[in-house]
Task: structure prediction
Amino acid sequence: MNLSVGIVGLPNVGKSTLFNALLGKQVADASNYPFCTIDPNVGVVAVPDNKLPVLADIVKTPKITPAIVEFVDIAGLVKGAAQGEGLGNKFLTNIRECDAIMHVVRDFSDPNIIKEGSVDPQGDLEVIFAELIIKDLETIDKFIIQNQNNPKENKSKKFLIAQKLKQSLEQGNLAVNLDLSKEDIELVQEFFLLTAKPYFIAVNVDEDTYKNIKNYKLNIKDFDRVIPISAKIENDLSEFDDTEKSDYLQELGVNESGLERVIQKAYQTLGLQSYYTAGIKEVRAWTISQNATAPEAAGVIHTDFQRGFIMAEIISYNDFVQHQGWQGAKDAGRLRHEGKDYHMQPDDIVEFRFNVTK
Result:
């Protein structure tokens, strides 16, 4: 399960600078003018995970494969994008292909950087949300018009949910924030709505604000979704080695880089977690949905593992480390055998037993 996060915002709020910093290299054009990003830049980064080298040392393997996240730097949106302004439909199409959206808004002052369309963080978000809502209303209206005279379709659950979505969108509500049943959510997914994408907000702050990040407050409606981050500082960090990064973060009074906090927020937003496989050939992190069953987790490795699932042999990370591996944990009675109904826990270390003939 690869996670794809689209970086979205108005022009010149720091999207491409942040994208480059997260990837640790110069990929996207971060020039000081609107629409310097035309086609989306795509980059893959490893999920920072300090458990992997610990496990590799225990099982004596040189090969470590972390989970990955794909970041997509999407061209700057402007008011009127839904009607084709700026890069219009091209921008909106790129969003559809991402699992989650990271909205980047500007909360720094720099007279040397053009403030194209940006007013304040809340105002920026309202512009972006309005454009996404307008585009989704087009999608819903098209469906309703095509099916309103069809007796079979206009009484269907999908048609009813379309009417509910239209009413809610017209009131300025995002589809992802609606209180819907599991069945309704599945119907909403059939429309591929932009406002149905899970999202969080990266507020690009200046260096002085970042140094006091623990006390950062922002007058914004979705503050629980906010991550304060400094694209400038992250850009500096990307040029340091691990020791220099650690020292610099300590000077700033923070324990984690922006990349780590962004990925944690993305996992939280999408309801994801990791589990591990650990053997002489490789130590690897796998990304799964929270509450995934053992067969579903096995299917992330290979569909044959899920189809022929017999059981999962599981040790918690803490037990694995304390007893120094599979045999030590087994001797201590810490190895568990779990069946098809087991729901995976964060940091489970697993070996799957399966029958390939099923």
